Amino acid sequence: MKIFRGIARSGDRVPVALAIGNFDGVHRGHQALLAQLVAAARRHRLSPAVMTFEPHPRELFAPDAAPARVANIRDKIEALAANGVERVFIQHFNRRFASLAPERFISDVLVAGLDTRCLLVGDDFRFGARRAGDVELLRSRAAHHGYAVEQLATVHEHGVRVSSSEVREALAAGNLAHAAALLGRPYAISGRVLHGRKLGREIGFPTLNLRLAHRRPAARGIYAVKVHGLGDRARPGVASIGLRPTVDDTGRWLLEVHLFDFARDVYGRLVRVELVHKLREEARYESLSALSAAIRQDAAAARALLTAVGPAD
Question: Is residue 279 in a domain?
Fold first, then answer.
């Protein structure tokens, strides 16, 4: 896979079949669109490509009302690659880009910038300044600009529309089984293990720390987890996704994992933390001893639960 920040340079440009969207979570609805994208690319001998946006458009215009993030950019790209995408264009979404008139978006971005020959969009796709562009406009300009438009209907699961919003709601409710059904895989977060304040080690629960890049992660709280990437099998543990209100007032989100029966130095390693079961919400404690007691109880609950569901893969 090739990844571009913005539009590729002319020397690295090839004709593409293109899908456009945020693709947060790359859920089963996205996967259906991507399967159609790859099939169209093969039919027309094009490269299957995706344009996505950073930050999410609503983070620019209404940051306090922007949706929580299901996936970080690394996990999004990995999921796109797993679904056959060969080229990803990560477009920086700023006010200049947002102000492009729909006609300019078609001529300057889709045609001149990306050499789009086949465009696949969902039934609710909107684009351009004030979201004025729609599928009908794309179709009306297709013959002039030399691209085809294919449209995909919404995917439903047991009568429920498969969407990033539905995944967010499932994660917020701690319903990991429903989230997994919508995603087509267990929900997980990946990242590199960072150095922290070593506070967990001081209170008897050393942790692996992963930074969460976004201000509003969709999953929050205390979880029983499996950690992949530290050997030939997943490692069981207990994790916190939160703001650490007892010990930190920076407002920075962090994923902390305490692994059971594990003491190796793995700083810098890339790991994937699979959430298995939500134990509770994050809480503030009056002392480090109270925090330590809560972690001890969470660890015991997570160990028992993970033992009951079977050994780590």
Answer: yes
